[in-house]
Amino acid sequence: MRKLVAARRLSQTFFLLLFVYILWSTTYPLEGFLPPETFFRTNPLIMIFTSLSERLLLPGLAMAGVMLVLTLILGRFYCGWVCPLGSMIDAAGAFKKRKFIPSEKQNRSLKLPKFIFLGLVAVSAAAGFQTAWILDPMVIMGRFVSLNLIPTVTLGIDRLFIFLLRRTDMYVPLYDSYRWLRSSILGVKVAYFANSGIIFGVIALIMIAALFLSRAWCRAVCPLGALYALAARYSLVKRNVSECVQCGSCVKHCRTGAIKDNAVEYSGGECVMCMDCVYDCPVNGIAFSIHGGGKPPEKGGIDRRDFLILLSGAFLALGAGIKKRTGRGRDAGLIRPPAALKEKDFVDRCIRCGNCMKVCPTNGLQPSLLQAGAEGIWTPHLVPEIGYCEYQCNLCGNVCPTGAIEKLSVEEKMRRKLGTARVDRTMCIAWAQDKECIVCEEHCPVANKAIKIDEKVAGGKVVKRPVVDKDLCVGCGICQNKCPVRPERAIKVYPEGAERS
Question: How far from 30 is each of 188, 298, 397, CA to CA, in Å?
Fold first, then answer.
């Protein structure tokens, strides 16, 4: 009985479901037994290099440090036992048994890119430019779950019940089940997110690659895996071979190509502790333990040639990062979440995890593409036509793992200015057509009404016309969202006067 493999699969399933559950259960008002930033704050790649780029100590550094200490003891266990994306990759790879098996030399070349990516992340952070989010597996998985999986599954189940309720005679039991689901998993708002197809495309490419090469992402690309690999080379738990008949089974089935062709030596940094080799051995000659014995793991990791390549790439990134630093900070008219840091700092510290967008109760927070330049890709911004900033909601700041959006009390958030609304009098029904329309004023949530009424006598009747009080307006966008003028709204919010830390 493959007890260790069964334990590993159980662990992978548990942490994958926990990851999805935490993101799924986080709604307005804030619920869930674990805050959604928990997983992200255990991520040393995000925590260390975001702290470095911002020159501050983020709260999650302690948790990330614990993960590195555990890696020094147990090896690269996170990648094989915990990582949600790694679990998805293993599940996808299980659908194709015959895969490309690289030689020892090819494995050495395959593992090089992830160390280059890690070096680029490190040097960019030193230059004040945070790029850890681009290839971080937890961020990629978080965006997929929040912006693809949850909306798709929720919408699918919702439409299925509606179809069954209309087409079958089982109305009562179906409706009771539907009501229960609406109060639980279907209580999550069915949301639309711009560019979600690209986000899905990224995860699809990673899964497809796993069909042809086991753990292709983990072997060649993942910078978090590279960071764990550096620590795991010196771990206390090691693979020991007491007897070997040179059958090659362990070499053939190793998920990351960590085992050398002689089946005895292995690269400690590349081993993800999957435990397959323990049971593949026909003579039961393989074990993992703290005790010595057998051939020690290879600790070389990167040779001189690889180091020179890595160093060259690092200097290129340093130059690019410094150059980019001087031209950053433009917002291109984007309305950022309430209490977002100033643009340059916000873009640096935001890891594009999707937490704030997923929990936004109106679906108003959307991922940007190139509206703020390449450096602002996937960062959240408010699109009032889709949804406004709920006046009494402070959830986005509470779920941000890096503090790119400041935590505010509800009272503080209600006073924090996102921007200022402006009426286009050439389009406004009341101003341009002398017809009654004060929809924007009626929906304004500010106690003293940030939209005032100007009265004019036209055609023998009094016409009320909206006027924005710039001192009272907080830029929540509800006026723009509710404005009946189409296709362009007659009142729009601009980031003028936004209060950003």
Answer: 12, 47, 11
